[in-house]
Amino acid sequence: MPEIPLVPSLWRFPARPASVARARRAVVEALPRGLWPQIGEDLHLLTSELVTNAVRHGARAGEEELVEMVLWPADGHYWLAVSDPGESGGSAARMSEVGWPSADSESGRGLVLVDHLAATWAVRPRPVRGKSVIAGLPLPGGGWV
Question: Which CATH number goes with the domain that contains 60?
């Protein structure tokens, strides 16, 4: 009989800056305690960057939009998907191209950090509206939860 996989954790937050801290707390609480020393801090940083980008660039100002976050273990990784209602083409397609900001730039380093921390990541269009940024952190030894 096959082993039943863990059910992914799912959250929806208002597309507001205060939701970034709520998202970080949510993944800290959802991650099994034994994994915190191996991937907890990287997951915390990934969550912060991806939710911040979704709030800043994926939601329209003045509208009550939501950012969705899913966390799940599979294939020797912990996966984090952050989805927003923003366009899946145009500038979103360029999100997957990591650029290097100038030394005096005050922003633009988030995707450089994501690219460094994650084993793999991608931007995917959602079926109806919006996009998801999905990043995978490898579990130590490729292990399972």
Answer: 3.30.565.10
